[in-house]
Amino acid sequence: NDEEARRNVAALTSDGQFILLTFYNPQSYFRGPFLAKLPQALEEFEKESGITVVDAINLDGGSASAFYSTDLFLEELSPIGSFFCITE
Q1: Radius of gyration of the chain, Cα coordinates, nearest whole angstrom
Q2: pLDDT reading at 39 higher than 90
Q3: For residues 39 and 75, what is the distance between their CA atoms, to the nearest angstrom?
Q4: Which of 14, 10, 20, 8 is closest to 53 using CA atoms?
Q5: Which of residues 17 and 31 earns the better pLDDT score?
Q6: pTM for the full model?
Q7: How far apart are CA 8 and CA 53, in angstroms?
Q8: Is the Cβ–Cβ distance between 32 and 42 less than 8 Å?
Q9: CA angle 70, 32, 53 (to 5 degrees)
Q10: Closest CA to 66 of 19, 29, 38
Q11: 67-68 and 7-13 as β-strands: parallel, antiparallel, unpaired?
Q12: Span 73-82, pLDDT tens digits
């Protein structure tokens, strides 16, 4: 039942960094790549950023996912049960 949806990914880089990525369509923050296309989106991220991802996992959530940072605020469509929080 693959649909276009916003995807949140937790990943490790080749230099041992932990990163969180959100793939979405700027015209509709709740839409993004099909799950089957997520590896291709990750490859495009690597090419554009110069960051090499050595391991990654899709964090399920769909419409119940959100992303908050100093640069980006993507709210959830459905209530969220839990958050990953990272502070500096």
Answers
A1: 13
A2: yes
A3: 24
A4: 14
A5: 17
A6: 0.78
A7: 14
A8: no
A9: 70
A10: 29
A11: unpaired
A12: 777 777 766 6
Do residues 22 and 69 make contact, with C-beta atoms less than 8 angstroms apart? no
Is 80 exceeded by the pLDDT of residue 83?
Answer: no
Query: Do 58 and 7 contact (CB within 8 A), yes or no?
Result: yes
Q: Tell me the average pLDDT of the chain.
A: 86
Scan for tokens 């839409």, then name that residue: 31
DSSP codes, 11-59: EEETTS-EEEEEE-BTTBTT----GGGHHHHHHHHHHHH-PPEEEEEEE
Split at pLDDT 50, 70, 90, the class of 61 is low
Give the residue with greater pLDDT, 47 vs 4.
47
Q: String of b and e for 31-56 (b: at least 16 CB within 10 Å)?
A: ebbebeebeebbeebeeeeeeebeeb
d(CA 62, CA 52): 25
Euclidean distance between CA atoms 74 and 53, whole angstroms: 23
